[in-house]
Structure formats: structure tokens, C-alpha cells
Amino acid sequence: MRYYLILISALLLTGCKKEIDPTQGKEVLKAGFVYVNPEGKQLKDPTIIVPPKLSAMPANIDYIPYEGATFKSDIKVVRNKIEQDYSGTPVVKWVLYDLDNKRVVKTESESDINLDIASVGKYRLTQYIFKNEIESETLNMAVDSASKIVEISAIKSIDSIVIDKLSSHSPYLTFSFKEDEVFDAVVSLYNSLEDAENSKPPIAETEVNKALKLGASQIAFTNTDPIFIPTFDFPEKDDFYLQLTYMQHGKKFRILDNRFGSIFKYYKTGYLTADKSALQEERKLKFGDMTLTISSSFTFQR
What is the pTM of this model? Predict the structure, then answer.
């Protein structure tokens, strides 16, 4: 009986013994990184949305190019549950994984990484940290890791739509348009040319400019709600259909669009605003003596 009492007491003492933290008193590295936008602002969001790195600019124009998305190591050292910035030189390995195509598309061993991706899609960027270079050859030997989802998005917000000088010149039939009378005008956005021709409602549309006259200059089209469009592509390859329509006496006249081959399409993209807060893009649709300019941008917020 005495033996059992001693055994029970020993078990109770063992059960009440305080659990010892194996990291107590030791320095433990904690992986982490931030997105640094072109303005230099650091964003810690778990999902980062950035535009693709594309550039199409006239040779005679000075501009600030977009260099891609930069991610900077933000590794911490934890000692006795107190977290501080790590001042040493970490052994780091980055792995960028294409979530859509299920494959690794980039690896890097520098402390920071720049992603100059042109393809739209979702990616997982993972940072692994190691004790030394030898262990960095095997990902399973990492002491810690951290990940973010990086979404490459071509969607931009339309900032302005302006016509330099109203004209009735068009590659489409406008013979019944009365040039000496006032008319209304609107710019519409469709998923496709087929949707527009089949009288489907546009996915976005500007406010109607009313009582216009030919020859009027700097006509701006406004919109109550934001209009978002994909990045313009080279002529004939846009992923959407954009159309300028005149309306007069109950009739509609298609004047300009981004499909007709004889409409000159001037295009520039991949350049930053002066304060580097946004990526800009511009498309001009020109026929005869009239040019429609669409300016859009991607603001670096998250």
C-alpha cells in the first residue's frame, strides 16, 4: 500500500510540473516580408495586387518606367517572447509559385526580391529562412517561412475620356446624320463587339453629353460610378469593346470604336505618375480630324 501511495504522489508531481519552453532564453528567427510600392510605402497585407510589368512607349518621350513589384525582408528575432528587428544577414530563399498553372516560376536567394511578371494570374510568394547556406539547399531545413498571395491584375480605372474636336467623320455609315443640328454622345464599354451588335446592355457607360455641336473642342465624358477596364492591348487584341455613339432624332450612329482597322490606335502604357503613386496608360482612337483619348491608371494601394 505504501508503494502505491509513493507512486501516485510521484505521478501527481510529474503532472503538475510546469512545461518548459524549449526556446526559452534562445533567439528564434521569424520569417516575414513586406511589399514596397513605387512610392516607397511598405504594405503588410497578406494579399498584394499589382499590375503586370508591361511597357509600350514612344521612343521620344521621357517617362518613369514601372520596374515591377518589390518585396523586402522583414525578418524578426524573438527572445523570451519579445520580438525585435533582426540586424544580421539572413540566409533566405524565395519561391514564387504559379497557382493557376501549378508550377514554380522563380526562385531567388537575395534578401529582397523583385517580381517583373508580365502574365496576369495568382501567385504564392514564399520566403524561407535558414541557419546557414548548406541547409538552404533543402526547403525542409528552413527554420521558418512566410507567404503572401500576389495577384497580377490588368484591371485599371478610367480617369478621363476626352475628344479633342467633335467631328462626324467615321468609317461607319452616317449618311442620315444631320451635321447642322445638335446631337447627344456617349461612350460605352462592352464585353465584345458581338454584345454591342446584338443590343446587349453595356457593362459600363459614361454619362450622356447632351446638345453637342460639331466642331466643339475638349469634350469630356464623365461617369457617376468608376469604370474599370483591362489593360489595353495592341490593335485588334483588346479584351473589351469600346464605342463612341452619337444620338440624334431617335437614331444612333456608331462613330469610333477600338475594332475597325482604319481607326488609328495610339497606345502607351507602363509609365508612372510623377509621384509614383499610380501606373498610367493611354489609348487614342483617331479617325480623320477627331481623336478620342482614354486615360486609365492603377493606383498602388495594396
Answer: 0.81
